[in-house]
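Please decode residue identities from the backbone states below.
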């Protein structure tokens, strides 16, 4: 059967999977590391991709390839196709003030009005990670580089362009062959996910001029061909690609429990959240991908396990030995501030301590319940934007704990599905490549487990209690 390749070019590494386009069976794979830092020259991504492709056995027998990549990264090219300066990645915060200024300027000094403008226009209120904020920083701090910038693209756009045989010295005409998709374009701050159009006025106000931008191709359209003749898919931002990798559809909410937490859904309506808690991204199928983030997830498990002197496995065993609700012990897990809700200076707190409930088992249970309740707040923010949550797809390192799985089912109150651990972004890119090849996304089997949830009316008591204490934390 024809083979397809999926690429995940993340902050830390590049991963390549080669799969059977019909069955989805993994044939081979490769990986290479990226350099650390929040500012990276794109050539490092290209070198890592070549290394990962080589480890995966090459692309000579591959019929289609697609790239899933880290979102928001600012890649500036001059008229010859040369990189103007190292790319600023999503996690580079030097443009934080520029994001605040964009909000104030849009509202003529009124932050509330400015946030409403951005939410209604682009679906996302500016933060430091957005490309638009970074372009404004570039124009203010490196005006010569800003003037030299003839084209702006994102990491996955640039890699797809390189896979098509373009690169430094290709010339101005090759810049017109840059391609992207709705999901990644929707994270720039100068693209409207609802209308599907770029916003040239934003580029004029940030970079100072309107550069060449990647043409936005449809979910299963071809973005080019490799020199060897393989079709290149439109690609996707990493979360949208992960959604493809776990077969998420309308009604599904993907909750990722890693160092931080991510809650995103496939929705048929765009999100327009002026509070900024929900980013109104697009997905890789023609729908929308509203997304919320929390800052505190598995680190809370790590810290609690260390405090109790147990392993993470033992932490889960302790949690399951305690009753639901940890006998009234409630942890607000804002150890490193919080993003949802937006409390950057908050700290964690422990409530309801009594002599009888202050036990290792209840502490373990409270830690896991606290993290999952925090993610439930992210889910609630999505639901306030019209998202329907019929099923939770639970992924990430923390999702592999049986205790987390069982407590998640009780917290969210809907069906929870836990896929087998995998390279979801690369797999999603490979699935898209298969769709480009055949004209239809394949229905590849996805192994995992369904977690039974208790059928109770309303929110569980421990979630209600958590929200009571979280509201107090928000008031300071």
């Amino acid at each position: 059967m024809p083979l397809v390749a999926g690429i995940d070019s993340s902050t830390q590494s590049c991963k390549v999977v080669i799969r059977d386009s019909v069955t989805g069976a993994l044939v081979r794979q490769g990986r290479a590391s990226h350099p650390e830092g929040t500012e990276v020259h794109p050539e490092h991504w290209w070198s890592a991709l070549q290394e990962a492709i080589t480890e995966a056995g090459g692309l000579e027998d591959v019929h289609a390839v697609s790239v899933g990549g880290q979102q928001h990264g600012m890649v500036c090219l001059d008229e010859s196709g040369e990189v103007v300066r190292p790319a600023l990645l999503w996690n580079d915060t030097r443009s934080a003030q520029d994001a605040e200024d964009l909000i104030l300027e849009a509202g003529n000094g009124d932050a509330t009005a400015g946030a409403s403008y951005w939410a209604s226009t682009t679906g996302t209120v500016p933060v430091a990670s957005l490309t638009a904020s970074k372009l404004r920083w570039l124009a203010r701090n490196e005006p010569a580089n800003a003037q030299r910038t003839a084209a702006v693209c994102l990491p996955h756009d640039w890699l797809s362009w390189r896979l098509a045989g373009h690169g430094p010295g290709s010339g101005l005409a090759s810049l017109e062959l840059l391609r992207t998709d709705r999901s990644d374009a929707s994270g720039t701050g100068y693209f409207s996910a609802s209308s599907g159009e770029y916003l040239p006025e934003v580029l004029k106000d940030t970079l100072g001029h309107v550069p060449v931008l990647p043409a936005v191709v449809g979910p299963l359209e071809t973005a080019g061909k490799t020199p060897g003749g393989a079709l290149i898919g439109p690609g996707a931002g990493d979360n949208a690609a992960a959604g493809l990798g776990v077969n998420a559809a309308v009604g599904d909410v993907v909750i990722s429990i890693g160092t931080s937490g991510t809650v995103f859904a496939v929705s048929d309506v765009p999100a327009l959240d002026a509070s900024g808690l929900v980013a109104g991204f697009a997905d890789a199928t023609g729908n929308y991908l509203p997304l919320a983030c929390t800052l505190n997830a598995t680190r809370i498990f790590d810290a609690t396990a260390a405090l109790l002197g147990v392993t993470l496995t033992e932490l889960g065993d302790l949690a399951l030995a305690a009753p639901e609700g940890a006998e009234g012990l409630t942890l607000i897990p804002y150890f490193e501030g919080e993003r949802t809700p937006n409390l950057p200076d908050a700290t964690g707190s422990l409530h309801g301590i009594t002599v009888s409930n202050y036990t290792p088992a209840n502490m373990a249970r409270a830690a896991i319940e606290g993290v999952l309740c925090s993610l439930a707040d992210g889910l609630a923010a999505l639901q306030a934007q019209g998202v329907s949550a019929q099923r939770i797809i639970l992924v990430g390192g923390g999702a592999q704990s049986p205790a987390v799985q069982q407590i998640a089912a009780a917290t969210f109150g809907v069906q929870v599905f836990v896929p087998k651990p995998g390279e979801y972004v690369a797999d999603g890119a490979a699935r898209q490549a298969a769709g480009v090849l055949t004209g239809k996304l394949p229905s590849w089997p996805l192994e995992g487990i369904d977690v039974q949830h208790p059928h109770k009316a309303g929110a569980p008591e421990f979630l209600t209690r958590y929200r009571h204490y979280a509201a107090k934390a928000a008031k300071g």
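Observation: The CA atoms of residues 122 and 192 lie 4 Å apart.
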